[in-house]
Structures are given as C-alpha cells and as structure tokens.
Write a structure and sequence with these properties.
Shape: globular
Distance between the termini: 56 Å
Radius of gyration: 19 Å
Strand content: 15-25%
Number of strands: 8
Structural class: alpha/beta
Length: 259
C-alpha cells in the first residue's frame, strides 16, 4: 500500500510536524528516533558522510517504523535527485539555493516530464518495483513528494516571493545558521528577523509550508508558534552527546559529594 507523502501530511496536519537530522551511518538511531515519536527524519548528506546505499536502507527502516523521510542532498547540482526519489523518500531538501534559476532547476529535476525533467522509474522502490499503477506512481511523485529549497543567504530571502512562485515548488526551508554567517548578523538582529518574517509571510500567502532547524524543544515550540510547519530539533549525534554529557556530569557531581 502506498504511504502518504510528506507534502500531503503537511497539508492535512493540524499542527507543526517535528523531526530531527540523522547524521550517523547506522540503523539503530533510526529505530530509536522512531520509537521516541518523531514525525519525520532528515537524512543529512550535506553535513554527514551518508551514502546513497545507506540512505536507501535508512529510508526503508524509518518508513517501516512510521516516520516520513526527507533527504538533504549534498549540494544543488541535482546529481543525486533522481536516484534518491527512486528509493521512495518522502521529500528532498536542496541546500544553498540562491536564485530563481537555481530553484527552478532543482524543482524541474524532481518533477516528472513534461512539466519537469524527472524520468520514469516505476520498477524502483518508489513504484513498488513495478507494482504501482503508472498513473498513481506519477501522481504521488508530483503531488505528495516534498520538493523544498533551502534559503540561506540574505539575497535569496530578499527574492523569496519570486523563488516561491517557481512552479512545482511545495516547500521552503530557512537555514538560520548559514544566514547568520552569510549576513554577518546575529539571529537576534532586527534586520535578520525582518527577513524571517518576510519568508514566513511569503510562504503563508502561497500555502507553501516553511521549515527550519533548532537546537531545543523550547525553540521548536516557538518556531511552530511563529508559523513554521515542519521543524527539525537537534540531531542524533547531538542528542547522544547531550545525554552522555549529562550522565558524566551527574557522576562527577556525585563523586564530589562522596557518593
């Protein structure tokens, strides 16, 4: 049975959806994060050494455990898009998109011909190895898969209205870390916050779900209140580090008190 794609999950959800990044090339964290109750997982190929083969295995494991799966591809070249879509992922994040032309090129590669350039691969996992009716395979790929671009530079966000008008684009992600780096402004700066408001307003007007990434649950709740529809909270390695550091500190405090 065909699962509900992430674009449709976002459209039907009456709340913000929460996920986290996967950076460790192992399947155990996938099961742990699913058991914890995250709505979705983002396989991070941009900032982690995760191969296509691992992304395939992690997608199967995560979807089998009830999570939607997005993949952040390594770059905006488009070389990874077709094969990842063939694995049956629920969406793609294309990093460091800076212009309408780059957004259009990325979206076209994720949209079936003739509207786009994605080739038919119905005998892949996305087509249930040939078992899915052709019409349903094409409909799912065009209507239910999230095709999102990451806007991480000031100029890109200043052009957000034009970028979000790209045909077939159905998601946008704000990269706050790189936005701070590229602008030279701290997150608290009013100019930066005006850019965030501009992105969220443009997305809301068009019904395009906006996402971002934060470090804590409190920040995730604040992001949801601000209008984000999907939020990544921390990542598998940071969650492990935080838990491990907490345990060691408790042990050290106990030792200092003679426990």
């Amino acid at each position: 049975m065909l699962r509900t794609g992430f674009a449709q999950r976002l459209a039907r959800a009456d709340r913000c959806l929460y996920g986290t990044w996967l950076k460790t090339p192992a399947l155990e964290p996938v099961e742990i994060l699913a058991d914890a109750g995250f709505d979705f997982l983002v396989i991070d190929q941009e900032h982690a050494p995760l191969t296509l083969e691992f992304a395939y295995a992690a997608t199967v494991a995560a979807q089998g455990a009830g999570m939607s799966v997005l993949v952040r591809v390594p770059d905006r070249s488009g070389s990874h898009l077709q094969r990842l879509l063939d694995t049956g992922v629920d969406g793609i994040l294309v990093p460091r998109v800076t212009s309408v032309a780059e957004a259009d090129a990325a979206v076209r590669q994720m949209t079936f011909s003739p509207a786009g350039e994605r080739g038919i691969g119905i005998t892949s996992r996305a087509g249930r190895w040939g078992g899915l009716p052709r019409a349903e395979y094409l409909r799912f790929g065009d209507e239910e898969v999230l095709r999102a671009v990451q806007l991480e530079e000031r100029a890109a966000i200043e052009a957000v209205d034009e970028i979000l008008d790209v045909a077939g684009l159905n998601g946008v992600f704000l990269g706050m870390g790189d936005l701070q780096l590229s602008s030279g402004l701290p997150e608290s700066d009013p100019v930066l916050q005006e850019l965030v408001d501009r992105l969220l307003a443009a997305a809301h007007r068009r019904g395009v779900p906006a996402g971002t990434a934060v470090a804590t649950a409190a920040q995730a709740s604040a992001a949801a209140d601000r209008g984000y529809r999907f939020v990544m909270v921390s990542n598998d390695t940071s969650l492990l580090r935080t838990a491990a550091t907490s345990v060691v500190r408790q042990l050290e405090e106990g030792a200092s008190h003679g426990v």
